[in-house]
Amino acid sequence: MSAQLQTITVTSRLRLGPQRGRMRVAWALTLLSWALSSCESHEAHEEDPRAEACEHLAQGPAKALTAGVDDASAVDVSAGHTRFDLALGDVAGAKGGVAKFSVAAAGDWMVALSEDAKLAVVGPNGAVIAPESSLPGGPTCSAAKVIHTYELGVGSHLLRFGPGSSAAVNLVIEAAAHTEP
User: For residues 53 and 175, what is the distance between their CA atoms, to the nearest angstrom?
Assistant: First the structure.
C-alpha cells in the first residue's frame, strides 16, 4: 500500500472511526482504479493509432460539412479526434469535392475513409503525395473501407475527393505517432 493511501487510512480512522474510514478508502480506490483504466485505454490507442482512427470513425464526435467545389473553397478538416461527414458535390459529371488539413508537425498521418473514394492528397508545394500504405479497415474496423497513411510535411494540405459515385464520405485524420495537427 502506498504511503498516500496509508495516510488516508490512518487519518480517516482517527477522525471518522474504522467503518467510515474504510468506506472513504474504498471510494478513493474506486476512483483511482477508474482513472488508471482511462489511462490504459488511451495508452492502448497510442500504441495503435489505427484503433483510435477506427473508434472515431465509428463513434465520432462528428461534424457534418459540405466539401468545397475547388481548392479555394476547401472546407477545413484539421480538428483532431473528429469524424467529418463530408457531403460531396457534382464534379466532372460525378461526385467529388475538396477539403484542407493543416499539419503543424511533420510525420505520418492516417486518413480513414468510410468509402473507398478516390482521394488525392496535395502538399503545400502543389505536388500530389502518394500514400505510403493503403489498408482495408478489416473485421476490427468495419466503419473504415480503407485507411491510407501519408508522410506529410508542415503546412496546409488539400484532400481532393473524386470524381466518383459516392455522394458522401466520412473521414478521420489521425497522426500515426499521436501528434496533433
Answer: 9
Residues present in the chain in total = 181
Q: Residue 88 and residue 164: Cα distance in Å, rounded?
A: 10
Average confidence score pLDDT of the chain = 79
Helices (H), 48-140: 49-59
pTM: 0.71
Distance CA 143, CA 161 (A): 18
- 3-state DSSP call for residue 138? coil
- Which has the closest alpha carbon to 80: 108, 48, 103? 103
Compute the distance between CA of residue 153 and CA of residue 103 in angstroms, rounded to an integer: 7
Distance CA 88, CA 169 (A): 7
Cell 477506427 sits on residue: 54
Residue 56: its pLDDT value, please?
87
Instruction: Give the model confidence (pLDDT) of 130-172 as tens digits.
Output: 999 998 888 888 899 999 999 999 999 999 999 999 999 999 9
- Convert the pLDDT of each residue in 18-51 to its tens digit: 555 554 544 444 433 433 333 334 444 445 667 8
Q: Taking the CA atoms of the chain, what radius of gyration do you get in angstroms?
A: 23
Would you say 178 and 49 are in contact if contact means Cβ atoms under 8 Å apart? yes
Q: What is the C-alpha to C-alpha distance for residues 91 and 115, in angstroms, rounded to an integer?
A: 17
